[in-house]
Design brief:
Blueprint lengths: L12 H9 L4 E5 L3 H10 L3 E4 L3 H4 L11 H14 L4 E5 L9 H15 L3 E5 L5 H9 L4 E6 L5 H4 L9 H17 L3 E5 L3 H10 L4 E4 L7 E4 L1 H4 L17 H17 L11
Parallel strand pairs: 1-2, 1-8, 2-3, 3-4, 4-5, 5-6, 6-7, 7-8
Length: 272
């Protein structure tokens, strides 16, 4: 069984900072609905991310771009009702904060008021700094996201590892420092070289959560549907599947259909 930090208390930004100071690794998983949130919360995850990855795994879109603010509010509210201990962080979706800090603040306030989430996360560095600062003025905790930023997929044209070149690595470090000084409580680093993620984690006072960024980060995050093996098309190097639910659930459906067809379900004990 995992060792829980402040086992019965709600995880907060203060808790996460204390975990960083004490070298206690932070576990973070995604959820998009009440039932999944209850399972992940009961399993001991410190943070539940209501990711815009819902656009992919829940709605079947090719990218994260189509999901709307109202859809993120729906998913976030469902997760909040299922999470008793974990801190719930929700993604601000594409188009709700880029290039307009007033709109960013309005989006953040709306998602916090209507979903009950505990913090928001947004992608980008220096280019979104004004939005980050404006959201923080309202007392809303903000988590940053650097490295591979899926909302910018059409800009980069690839999901390959970021910051492999020295110039981009320096920019990523500068962005991380700027976000910290602006007041974000943590940063997600996605698909960057492990040695760079380690350097950033040691440099920053705030927690750094990795996904495809090595094991020297202050914590890790995975998409739950990938970790549970509910999806099977997506197999990046950083993904560890702890279950193979795709095949198990498919086989269960197949057995159910067979039982219905042969008249075995429902049996005498399964009817009134």
């Amino acid at each position: 069984m995992p060792v829980h930090f402040n086992d019965k208390k709600r995880i907060t930004t203060k808790t996460l900072h204390e975990m960083k100071k004490s070298n206690h690794k932070i576990s973070m998983l995604t959820a998009y609905d009440y039932t999944m949130a209850k399972i992940i919360d009961a399993g001991g995850a410190d943070v539940i991310l209501v990711g815009d990855s819902a656009s992919n795994v829940m709605a079947g879109h090719e990218t994260t771009l189509p999901i709307t603010l109202d859809q993120m509010i729906y998913h976030s509210a469902s997760v909040v009702r299922g999470a008793e201990r974990a801190m719930v962080v929700t993604d601000l979706p594409f188009g709700s904060y880029q290039g307009n800090s007033k709109e960013a603040l309005s989006s953040a306030i709306k998602i916090m008021k209507e979903s009950g989430a505990h913090a928001v996360k947004l992608e980008g560095g220096n280019e979104v700094l004004e939005s980050v600062k404006r959201i923080l003025t309202a007392g809303i905790p903000v988590m940053g996201h650097l490295g591979l930023t899926p909302q910018s997929i059409y800009k980069f044209g690839t999901y390959s590892v970021r910051a492999q070149e020295e110039e981009e690595a320096k920019q990523l470090m500068n962005d991380a420092i700027e976000l910290q000084e602006a007041g974000v409580f943590g940063i997600v680093l996605e698909k960057v070289p492990a040695h760079l993620a380690e350097k950033i984690s040691r440099k920053l006072r705030i927690p750094v959560i990795g996904i495809g960024a090595g094991n020297s980060c202050d914590g890790q995050v995975l998409v739950s549907h990938d970790m549970f093996g509910m999806t099977h098309e997506f197999s990046p190097r950083f993904l560890r599947r702890y279950l193979n639910l795709y095949d198990e659930m498919k086989n269960a459906v197949n057995q159910y259909c067979l039982d219905v067809q042969i008249g075995d379900f429902p049996n005498d004990k399964e009817q009134y």
